[in-house]
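Journal club side-thread
Mid-discussion, someone asked how the predicted structure for our own chain would compare to the paper's figures. Pasting it here so we can look after the session.
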Amino acid sequence: MTLTTQNNNLWGDDIPWLYGLREKAIRYFEQTGFPTAKTEAWKYSYFAENALQNPQIDNTKHECDGHCHCHNKSDLPFEAYEIRFCNGKTEGEEIDLPNGVNVKSLAEAIFDNDIKDFLNKSFDYEDFPFAALNTAYLEQGYVLLIERNTILERPLYLHYHQHDNMNRLCNIRNIIILERGAQATIIEHFDADETAIYFDNVVNEIYLAPESILHHYKWQNEAKNAHHIALNSVQVKANAQYKSLCLQGSCTLARNESYIRLLQDGAKTEIDAIYCLKQQSVSDITTNIRHLATHTFSNQLVKGVVSDAAKGIFQGQIHIAPNAQQTEGYQLHRALLLSDKGEVDCKPELEIFADDVKCSHGATCGDLDKEQLFYLQSRGIDFEQAQQILIAAYLNEVIEKISDSKIKNWLQREFKLEDIL
């Protein structure tokens, strides 16, 4: 992959602190480059440098002719506040939001000097090479603020759509802030025209104040030639809760990385995921959960289905600091391997520096139960339908964790199992 890292013609270059932030990230990325198979955190899903030829970084203002995704009404079976991205650009339409909810474009928030205390404050990009690249070309995204004790009745629905084959490299940064006692649901939906060619490089910085609750759902329905790298960097304070579920479909490479810091007593997180892959798709679910205070809790459940020559990856690390006593941390990864050519790689890790803790991890990989398949076929169900029934039952353990029935039913409808068989 050839990429010219020149920081020019970006909005905000006349803002000294922003220009300096971009320049520092560019210098770092130029020194380190893309992760390779020798990079421990990327050894299963490293980004091949020749994967995209001459990717385009489009810094022009978004324009459309009225016939694209920006103007299509969504068919969601529930009410939501919709925020749209078209070919990596913020759509810019005004949103009628309730009191206590504020949404600004990233550019507007930067010019208003609202986010210096949050931008690039939740992670060190030295540990996340694509987040450094995102910072170098920081341009698109939103700042979402849920004010103190505000309970958002409808979800915020962020819809990202790609509809051409321009080899775009889209660097998107969202900053999500929940003040004390706030509660919200955010849905990210990535989809594209079948022939679209693009690389989404997304960073979400999420800050949860004490006693706030965020439900975060992500549904990736990408084009087959898409590359998707995403980092969710989350800081969770006292008695706050971050619950996420990521559903990954097939594309060239999808990596969803969660970096969660449980900063204060009683902080909790649940990180769940499903991947269903076919052809030569690669899906990587990577988590790094850091218990940094007492009485913190984390749980991870990841299930995958791999067919053809696809590859599924789970890398999960739980770190418990010396002062994080009376902490609980659990992780479990299970995968169904439906093809001799498929591959599943699993790397669970526990780093425990406290003695009063409860922790466990587990991993399994296997095929569908032959006796169960035979039983269903003996009842007049054809082989393919029997597979779908068993896979749906297998994945249902994760889906059932969605507390909102309307969102659960929508994702079950959209996540079509027949597409992977």
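Post-session note: The chain has a mean pLDDT of 90.
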